[in-house]
Design brief:
The protein has 840 residues and is an alpha+beta fold. It is 26% helix and 25% strand. The protein folds into 6 domains: 60 residues, no CATH class; 110 residues, Beta Barrel (OB fold (Dihydrolipoamide Acetyltransferase, E2P)); 198 residues, Phenylalanyl-tRNA Synthetase, Chain B, domain 3; 66 residues, Phenylalanyl-tRNA Synthetase, Chain B, domain 1 (2-Layer Sandwich), CATH 3.30.56.10; 226 residues, BirA Bifunctional Protein, domain 2 (2-Layer Sandwich), CATH 3.30.930.10; 88 residues, Alpha-Beta Plaits (2-Layer Sandwich). It has 22 helices and 42 strands. The strands form 12 sheets. It has a 7-stranded mixed beta sheet. Strands 5-4-3-6-11 form a 5-stranded antiparallel beta sheet, with no helix packed on it. The radius of gyration is 38 Å and the shape is elongated. The model has no long low-confidence stretch (mean pLDDT 91).
């Protein structure tokens, strides 16, 4: 929210010498963070000039320019007329204009210098409102007698050479404040001024404290028929409507209003729009103006019906959702999405003479969902979804009516409409000692009462407790801790001491946390990059990954209010979202990528969770059911890689990443935790059926899969061919590694190596052969490694030869050749019995 300091001075006492930095510092003391301090952006000599001569000159390109002589008095250092080329034609000899001389700088860091153009040396520029940052008008330059016509006090006495920066308000500063979602009332000058007055201890003038004309009879009919409230809360609980007849909608907005709208970052458009925007920025109450002549009947507020559409003011036709709250013409034609944006059919145009002004109060949740659903964030929706003061609607409508009558003519109807009954703020019981207990400072009861009263609460002392009724504009105050925060911030957060907690022995990382960090460090050391992806996926992701109809990973949780409509489901696999991250990196040129992610997945079955009523703590039974019905969310680790595992270099060609790399990374995860994961051939989507393995614990429990992705999956997800991936249940792996690994004492005696080649059927996994060798070799076998696989005429069709190196070492002696041969033969015999292997 941008707060012009000059505007702020009208609502509270701001020191005349206070700068933007001083105002920002005052607001920071009560928790309003400063974003930026803005100024006019014009530096250097911007002066009044009188046009002495204007000579039109037609150019070869058909354009006509004016070669002007302009009197700027002594502002140019010589007193001689200034020669300036100007392309505008809305001025004449004798007019007073705004001239920026060489050495000056316009907004956007546009430096002005004398330069040759159209055959002349133009020493400066005659400026338009757009060039000075005063508005969007660039059809012509500023003629001061016209531009300042509604401010005769500024126009009086202007002479050539006078400084125009203070006259046009270009030296005024604006403080931009970052408003947090719980402080929606600060999205208005009323809210900012109230907080400034609270911090500085100055009086506050409430701009909503205006006399509201008492209706002499029923006004334009308004009906609220919300038959599908969200969580039992009606979408609209107050609707104020006022009518102004006979206005000149084409009349220009006053200059002061256009200037203020520009200062707060809004573009002046037309009188009706500017008035509603001005009142919104002043009071925080969004308004909407309808062309009364386009309405056929009463205004009806209702939910959308299936199949309804609406063309909004941005000329986009939108398909409406049954949850959207609409403003309609007599219940039939939609006029706008409540709290978000109006429709094009009832827009006020230059030919409009009768205007209906709407000032309503809409539910924050309903407004936020509609804005997100239609990707339509507006100034109105930003305010409604953070909470608007329902008590200010009538005053806002009255201010808008008064401004329309004053600047557009016409008359305000004496009748008015005000329907609905906003929910009154709930009384909060509070122990006056609560701030002292929570904050650790002494807050006397008198200070607590004074502070809560200062922020607008109504406080009643009832026995040992205070009964606090928050103001209507503070919907964020719902319990005692909220009030404690108010007491603390008003005295000042800087008054709260920083106390460093003392570390307690034995309370470091949990075993699971240590295990996750170990795995993450191990993979990072191996060249993989850790990423974090959103755990939300689209409904077509399971089809893209090739899950069959009975795959339990298709059973997932659907979000009621997703961040994106395209991704309403919680992921059941890390690869559901990790593959998108890999695709994004590859598409942006990072073709050799190896990524990993540690995160939670949501597993089924999904059971309906009871939804407690709002406004109170659920009972213990409901809480128990909520906890029990939350679906399991195990922590998984996923790996995805594409491109080259080793780059090309002097050592040779590049090595593409392969399924073996994914299997190796998966096994390294287990090894980092002291586990040896068993690798077995498997088939599982989304992997290639011939290039996929399962990874199991020693007891046979499968904890993950690794391999190359199926070609159809790669094509569907738009990844490079031969992309590999792996996914493990990290919780299961960590639980299996819960017992600390005891290190084996190293033997100092030499090793004895012997090789053996075994011919087995093609269907026999190499893992089964290795296990049989270990079983038969005995305790002196230190390691076994597969170093060659051969298929050919010597093995026969359907068979393969596996060559292993067996390494033996005894703990207390050197093994003899005979002993090694005996151990090898025992290993071969055990393998022959277990797998049918024959020694080559």
């Amino acid at each position: 929210m941008r707060a012009p300091i000059e505007w702020l001075r009208e609502l509270t006492d701001v020191d005349p010498d206070a700068t933007g930095a001083d105002v920002a510092e005052t607001l920071v003391r009560v928790g309003l963070e400063e974003e930026e301090i803005l100024s006019g952006g014009v530096t250097g000599p911007l002066v009044v000039g009188r046009v002495l001569e204007r000579v039109p000159e037609e150019q070869k390109n058909g354009k006509t320019i004016n070669w002007c002589q302009v009197d700027v008095a002594a502002a140019n250092g010589t007193g001689e007329p200034q020669g300036i080329v100007c392309g505008a034609h809305n001025f004449d000899v004798g007019d007073l204009v705004a001239v920026i001389l060489p050495g000056g700088c316009l907004p956007g860091n546009v430096e002005i210098s004398a330069r040759k153009t159209y055959g002349h040396v133009s020493a400066g520029m005659i400026c338009s409102a757009l060039e000075l940052g005063l508005g969007e008008d660039h059809d012509g330059i500023i003629v001061l007698t016209e531009y300042l016509a509604d401010s005769p006090e500024l126009l009086a006495g202007l002479a050539p050479g006078d400084d125009l920066i203070p006259v046009l308000g270009l030296d005024a500063e604006t403080v931009e404040v970052n408003v947090t979602p719980d402080r929606g009332y600060c999205l208005s000058m009323r809210g900012i001024a109230r907080e400034y007055a609270l911090s500085a201890g100055t009086p506050f003038v409430d701009p909503a404290d205006v006399p509201v004309a008492e209706a002499t009879g029923p006004g334009h009919e308004v009906r609220i028929t919300d038959d599908a409230p969200i969580d039992g809360v009606p979408g609209c609980d107050r609707f104020v409507a006022r009518v102004v007849r006979g206005i000149d909608a084409s009349a220009p907005s006053p200059r002061w209003m256009r200037r203020r709208l520009t200062e707060v970052g809004m573009r002046p458009i037309s009188l009706a729009v500017d008035v509603t925007n001005y009142v919104m920025m002043l009071l925080g109450q969004p308004l909407h103006a309808y062309d009364l002549g386009t309405l056929s009947g009463a205004i009806e507020v209702r939910r959308a019906r299936p199949g309804e559409t609406l063309t909004t003011l941005d000329d986009v036709e939108r398909a409406l959702d049954p949850e959207d709250l609409l403003i309609t013409d007599d219940g039939t034609t939609p006029l706008g999405i409540a709290g978000v944006m109006g429709g094009a059919t009832s827009e006020v145009t230059a030919s409009t003479s009768d205007v209906l002004v709407e000032a309503a109060h809409f539910d924050p949740v309903s407004t936020a969902r509609s804005a997100r659903r239609h990707r339509l964030t507006t100034e109105a929706s930003r305010r409604f979804e953070r909470g608007v003061d329902p008590a200010v609607a009538a005053a806002a409508a009255q201010l808008a009516v008064d401004l329309l009558v004053e600047h557009g003519g016409g008359r305000a109807e004496g009748t008015g409409t005000d329907v609905g009954e906003p929910r009154a703020p709930r009384t909060i019981p509070m122990d006056p000692a609560l701030p002292s207990r929570y904050i650790g400072l002494d807050y006397p009861s008198s200070e607590v009462v004074a502070t809560l009263t200062a922020i607008g609460c109504r406080v009643t002392d009832a026995a040992e407790l205070l009964e606090v009724v928050p103001p209507t504009w503070r919907g964020d105050l719902v319990d005692g801790p909220d009030l404690v925060e108010e007491v603390a911030r008003v005295r000042g957060y800087d008054q709260i001491p920083s106390v460093v907690p003392r570390a307690t022995a034995g309370r470091g990382l949990t075993p699971d946390q240590r295990a996750r960090r170990t795995v993450a460090r191990t993979l990072a050391a191996g060249g993989l990059v850790e990423v974090l992806s959103y755990p939300f996926v689209g409904e077509d992701r399971h089809d893209q990954l090739g899950y069959d109809a009975q795959d339990p990973r298709r059973t997932t949780v659907r979000l009621a209010n997703p961040l994106r409509d395209e991704a309403p489901l919680m992921r059941t696999s890390i690869l559901d979202s990790l593959l998108d991250t890999l695709r994004r990196n590859v598409s942006r040129g990072h073709t050799d990528a190896a990524l990993y992610e540690i995160g939670q997945v949501t597993a089924g079955p999904v059971r309906p969770i009871p939804v407690p009523a709002g406004g109170e703590l659920p009972d213990p039974e409901t809480l128990r059911r909520i906890v029990e019905d939350v679906p399991p969310q195990p922590r998984h680790i996923g790996i995805a890689a594409a491109g080259n595992a080793a780059p090309r270099g002097p050592w040779g060609p590049a090595r593409p990443v392969g399924a073996a790399d994914a299997v190796a990374w998966a096994r390294v995860i287990g090894e980092s935790l002291g586990l040896e994961l068993e690798v077995l051939a498997a088939e599982r989507a989304p992997f290639h059926p011939g290039r996929c393995v399962s990874l199991a614990l020693s007891g046979g429990e499968v904890v993950g899969h690794a391999g190359e992705l199926h070609p159809k999956v790669v094509a569907a997800v738009e990844l490079p061919a031969r992309t590999v991936a792996a996914e493990l249940d990290l919780d299961a792996v960590t639980a299996a590694a819960g017992t600390p690994v005891r290190p084996r004492q190293l033997s100092t005696y030499p090793v004895a190596n012997t090789d053996v080649a075994l011919v087995v059927a093609e269907s026999v996994p190499a893992r089964s052969v290795e296990e049989a060798l270990r079983e038969g070799a005995g305790e002196d076998l230190e390691s076994v490694a597969l170093f060659d696989v051969y298929r050919g005429e010597q093995t026969g069709e359907g068979r393969k030869s596996l060559a292993y190196r067996l390494t033996f070492r005894a703990d207390g002696r050197t093994l003899t050749t005979e002993e090694v041969s005996r151990l090898r033969d025992a290993a071969v015999a055990a393998t022959a019995e277990a797998t049918g292997a024959q020694q080559r």
